[in-house]
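Protein chain data
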Amino acid sequence: QEPCLEVERVYTFSMSDSYGDGICCGYGNGSYKLSLGDAIFIEGGEFSSSIQHKFVLEDQDTVLVDHSTCVSDTVNGANQAHNIFKRVIGEKCKEDQHCSSDRCGGNGICE
């Protein structure tokens, strides 16, 4: 069953392992993936006792991932920002404060 998520709400995906060796590599090849449609926006499996990722479903096509909660190669596919609350140049925006440059252009794209 696929859960329904609300738009513009911060979600935290958390996973813990009581043995402390994650779900990959040492004793098997486990992994996890979070996706929006066909676009994987968080994936992994190699961690110690726990891992967490924060993300926001901005609209039906865009997921913003807080990169500070990710490890080096866990993010690909979906539209992403460097910070969950600030979009980077070229990202969609509604107001100036949504952009890391504090400039949302008339076309709805961060300048």
